[in-house]
Specification:
Layout: E1 6-10, H1 15-26, E2 30-35, H2 42-47, E3 50-53, H3 59-66, E4 71-74, H4 85-106, E5 110-114, E6 125-128, H5 141-160, E7 164-169, E8 171-173, H6 180-189, E9 195-196, E10 205-207, H7 208-220, E11 228-231, H8 239-250, E12 258-259, H9 261-278, H10 288-295, E13 298-300, H11 303-309, H12 317-324
Parallel strand pairs: 1-2, 1-4, 2-3, 4-5, 5-7, 6-13, 7-11, 8-10, 9-12
Helix pairs in contact: 1-7, 3-4, 4-5, 6-8, 8-12, 9-10
Length: 332
């Protein structure tokens, strides 16, 4: 009988990483997780996961985590719709280099890097696939850093033979989300939410368990090495359908307010300019990243993942939202 695989997970206390850990444990794998001293490790402690104390910039901790690992799932990143490119680049690109070097040195069997569909140009998308190159000049620091991170990761495949795959999820939602859905629900409850335009634009959503299914397929498939894959729930869901259902599950009235697209874009430019001039550390209510999320038609093809990985989303968006709603549903 073969020894169980050992996997190393970065971002293990976050939404994606915690679900990767959970799935790996179900498969009987040994799991090692990189955790910062300030992280909430309740889930990892409950599951009895081996923890390596440190962060993405700690070369010693990274080497310790990677040592003897069969697979690496890089789920960690600095995320957000506000901040300087330098901040995002330091953690999403330069720290990634430390992890990639350690992976090459340790001779890991597979490395799965979680990127983002945000790497594509900030425009309307209708079935965009992986033959479309990432945007050299992204709308915000986060997505620009993710473009650079992908380029660096794929460079290690070509130049150092690292067996790596890049997976590009859309908007991730699910249980244990501590940021995006809670903020959305709060803005719905306080009546501050408004659609940008009609709300009929496609949302590139991905339920976290569908994403984790794709990540493990990427780790298992020899054909996935050196490849990049778009991953979504696989069915067209409009922003109005998604947000309306979130409102319903949260026990609040679906939002009706709308800001015309031209006005939302103008506000994004002006408010960002003012916030940067003032050196604000919090994003303006309307900014370019939020315009991208709410204003653009974000429809991407997952045909390549279906063809090469055999990816078929195990859950529908409705099933995902109901599962996620356990964290924010209205009482009773």
């Amino acid at each position: 009988m073969s020894e169980p695989k050992t996997i190393f997970v970065t971002g293990a206390t976050g939404l994606v990483g915690s679900h990767v850990v959970e799935e790996a444990l179900k498969r009987g794998f040994r799991v090692r997780a990189l955790v910062r001293g300030s992280s909430d490790t309740r889930w990892l402690d409950t599951w009895g996961v081996e923890k390596v104390s440190g962060d993405l910039e700690d070369a010693r901790a990274i080497r310790e985590g990677v040592a003897g690992a069969d697979w690496i799932f890089n789920c960690a990143a600095k995320v957000g719709d506000w901040g300087t490119l330098e901040e995002f680049r330091r953690l999403n690109v330069e720290a990634l280099r430390i992890l990639l070097d350690a992976a090459v040195e340790a001779g890991v069997g597979r490395f799965v890097h979680v990127s983002s569909l945000g790497v594509y140009e900030g425009r309307d998308h209708f079935g965009t696939d992986e033959t479309t190159p990432p945007a050299a000049n992204a709308l915000d620091g986060y997505t620009r850093s993710k473009v650079e991170a992908e380029a660096l990761a794929l460079q290690y495949v070509k130049e150092k033979g690292l067996p790596l795959t890049v997976v590009r999820p859309g908007f991730i939602y699910g249980p244990r989300d501590r940021t995006v859905l809670p903020k959305l629900v709060n803005s719905l409850r306080t009546g501050k939410f408004a659609y940008f335009g009609s709300g009929n634009q496609a949302l590139n959503c991905i339920y976290v368990k569908n994403l984790v299914h794709a990540l493990f397929l990427a780790a298992e498939s020899p054909q996935a090495v050196g490849e990049v894959f778009n991953i979504t729930d696989g069915a067209r869901v409009s922003k109005k359908q998604f947000i309306g259902r979130v409102a319903e599950l949260a026990g609040v009235k679906p939002p009706r307010r709308r800001i015309p697209l031209w006005l939302a874009w103008t506000l994004a430019i002006l408010l960002e300019r003012r916030a940067k001039r003032k050196g604000s550390t919090t994003p303006p209510l309307v900014n370019k990243a939020r315009y991208k999320f709410l204003g653009l038609n974000l429809d991407y093809s997952i045909g390549k993942a279906r063809r090469i990985l055999g990816y078929e989303p195990p859950f529908t968006t409705e099933q995902g939202l109901v599962a996620a709603s356990a964290d924010f549903a209205a009482p009773g």
